[in-house]
Amino acid sequence: MPKIHPSSIVSEGAILDDSVEIGPFCFVGPHVKIGGGTRLIGHCNIDGYTTLGTGNVIHPFAALGQPAQDHAVVEGAATYLNIGNNNIFREGCTIHTGTLPDSATTIGNGNMFMNATHVAHNCRVGNNVIYVGFAGTAGYCEVFDNALISGLVGMHQFCRVGRFAIISGGSVFSKDVPPFMMAEGRNGGVKMINKIGLQRAGFPAETITVIKHIFQIYYRSGLAPSNALAKIKADLPQIPEVLEFVEFCEKSRRGVISARVEGHRN
């Protein structure tokens, strides 16, 4: 049987694996499903149609599965929060369900959401993503694998952050941040590639060199974005990272951030 502290409330209808541990003063709603090895340390609130996979750790005052902060919410309708495995939710983290009936917010595996971070309704977060303290993404954002969202970062709704991208602390963006790049400022721009992150992840030196060429063409050549993408496709080897960057930019609905950074004019 799950190990449940007597001060906690687990609603009738909740489904808990036998290896779940629930510490003091927690609340688990009637539609919640919690997988094996997941721990609620204490003072946690898990509600809504929320599914947690295995090995997740939820720290005090985290709130997962509350209704979206959106006037479009239909009271009483089923909206979902689907969470994978081995995620860490630190103190005060909040993640909401989808807005419209039957819609969902989705969290992958191996992510860390530090203190007071926020993932709004209908967002999609991949795997091995880090949200540093007080960072937040508004509704319908998408954050790809291995991205790093630094402290106090704010993302406008419908924005995307590409794989292995970094957003520097205190930045605010209303456009997409493409993969492998480091961005900063208030709708500022790309400063450089995420070289250290790529090296630590084991990217070959040859691949990192090609990504540097992507950066130079797209952000330092002075070409219009469409012309820069055409040049990237014509001049660079069409390795997966090149194809990923081009596809990300071509699919952008809000536009991709520019190269404007302090000390540089494009």
Q: What is the average per-residue confidence, as pLDDT, rounded to a whole number?
A: 95
Specify Rg, calculated over alpha carbons. 20 Å
Question: Architecture of the largest domain in CATH?
Answer: 3 Solenoid
Give start-end ranges of low-pLDDT stretches: 261-266
Strand % is 25-35%
Number of domains: 2
Notes on the structure:
The longest helix is centred in the C-terminal third of the chain and has 16 residues, at 205-220. The protein is elongated, with a radius of gyration of 20 Å. The strands form 3 sheets. The chain has an 11-stranded mixed β-sheet. The chain has a 9-stranded parallel β-sheet with strand order 2-5-8-11-14-17-20-23-26, with no helix packed on it. Strands 3-6-9-12-15-18-21-24 form an 8-stranded parallel β-sheet, with no helix packed on it. α2 (205-220) runs antiparallel to α3. It folds into 2 domains: 3-140, UDP N-Acetylglucosamine Acyltransferase, domain 1, CATH 2.160.10.10; 199-250, Udp N-acetylglucosamine O-acyltransferase, Domain 2 (Up-down Bundle), CATH 1.20.1180. It contains 4 helices and 28 strands. The chain has helices at 195-200, 205-220, 225-235, 240-250; strands at 3-4, 9-10, 15-16, 21-22, 27-28, 33-34, 39-40, 45-46, 49-52, 57-58, 63-66, 80-83, 88-89, 94-96, 104-107, 112-113, 118-119, 124-125, 130-131, 136-137, 142-143, 148-149, 154-155, 160-161, 166-167, 172-173, 181-184, 189-193. It has 266 residues and is α/β, with parallel strands linked by helices. The model is unreliable at 261-266 (pLDDT under 50). 17% of the residues lie in helices and 26% in strands.
